[in-house]
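Re: Re: token formats

Sure, here are both.
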Amino acid sequence: MAETQAERAGAPEAGESAPRRHPTLDSLCSRLESILWGRAAEELLVSGSTTPTGPRAVTLLPAWDWRMPAMDIGRKGRDHESGQALLMPVRLDWGGNDALVRLEGADGPERPYQWTAHSMGWTDSGEVAHLHERPPNISQRAKNSSRVTSLNAIVSDGNYSAPGIHRYTVDGLQDIVRAGRQSQWQLLFSLEPFVTATVHKAHSAVSHEIGELTGRVQSVLHETGIEQVVNAMMLGDTSMDSTDGASVSRLLEQCLRPDRFAKVDPLMYLSRNLRRDAEDHIRRAIGDPRIGPKVRRVAAHMTGATVDEIVAAYRLEHPQDKLSTARAQAALNVGSDPMARSVLIDPETNRGAR
């Protein structure tokens, strides 16, 4: 017998408690969703679409559904203490990010809201044809809040974890915009400890790789240099008053794309790309070309060879890199920042021993 969608989504057996969401991803995705709603609401305000034409309501469509993954994600999919399977975020596309916030007349949407999902191993689609509740007096702002009511509109039939669709008055659009901006700053600075830890791990990896040339692994950057890398990744080039080069801001923008998580969850996406960017920043700080590790691997098998001989061997192995003598020399001569303390890297902490 073919399994039902509820079974594929991980609906609990009789007597079992419903699984909970992955806690870290829940916080991350909630803030991403708030940012998306805020930007879509701002677009409505800028476009002038909110000009009164009778009673109207604002509908917020969910950016995420929470399901059991339909692909193997290893231990991340289970609670570390209980071993219980965790719900993971599945990105919903309602026709682009701006479509996450809709204006409706008093009679509701003219046509069903259609969605597609392509993430966490899921590939499906559907629609919400009816919103079963209507907010009272939608032409008036709620007394204490811009939210009028929360609708339990099921996104996936049989998926008990599906999120609801929220209704606001048109006056609440400004509140949605402000909440989105606040969520963006909260998310940015909540990632700082994670970015700092990632930079220290990347620094340890670069220090160990370069240390193979001398047989002594020591810090390639001093502590101030490491802090500068963290700041550059968080804020960009502060000397130019620009965030264009900020890795975190750039990656968060990528996380807002509806097609970004077809094969990976948001946390893994951030982890991989922040680690890559951290190593790039560190290598630039010490003058190491991006292909430096490959040059040194070739040189390691050519003891006593000249730079020209190493370049020739490298070009045979990696012709697409078009290695020059200058870049090869930079890769072979790279070492610690002169201000870095001459101490061994502690493999347990990824930091220099004190």
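Second one below.
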Amino acid sequence: DIYGDTSIHYAVAHNDKSLTEFLINECKVDVNGGDCKRPSALDIASFNQNLELQKLLVNNNGLSRYQINHESRKRKISQDELIRNIENLSITPHKGNQQSVITNAELKAERSSAAVEQVTLNDDEFEKQISEFNSAARDQMKLKNYQEALKYRQHENDLLINHFGYLHPAVARSYYNIAVVYHNKCDYDSAASNYTKAIDIRDQLPLSYKDPDFPNYNTNRALVYATQHQYDKALENFTQALSMRKTYFPIQYDEIQRLEQFIERIEGQRKEL
């Protein structure tokens, strides 16, 4: 439209999952399309706190506009500007060529009955459920009941996104934990996909978040790529992990040495091709 929004922006703004699925699966629309100075479809779903649409978009490579701007080397927009844009995003066609703006508050009042009803937990209830899911997943992993472990990890992921929103270190770690389950199942494509989701979130977080496990996201994705004989991608991820270790966790000598050995081994395998 004249504002640079696309059909998927309208579908997501109105919390219309069926239409969004149709646009993605049948029409093959670009889930990250539209004016780069406007919010992405994922931004809108996150702002509307629609968990179903957030997961649908993420599973189809949907990106936050922050990441799109970063990758295309365009300027980043501020959080305040992003919110203002989202609040005035949805344009509903009326008779003729006239259009009227529906605010986010009005959209929430008109949400479809098919939208997910999200239960708000107090902090104690939330922490208790997260602890239970985490403990159950660990127990199932020890027993190598990976499908059961995956079920608990996915419940944990849903709860974290509902509680914190998408861009949060706990959500990144949750996708990492899901990837680890797939990795152990030898479902390497699903493992790589979830490691990538964890990395995408991590890379959008402020630099003040320095979780010692963050480099492992790249290390494990590199191991998946190495297993699939995608040595260029493996080398790239091992190198990124090593850079993070040296920059933020320089005293972790054993981990740094291990990564250097991985890189040496991958470089040797590339030469043999």
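The chain has two domains: 7-109, 123-272. Residues 123-142 form the longest helix (20 residues).
- S.
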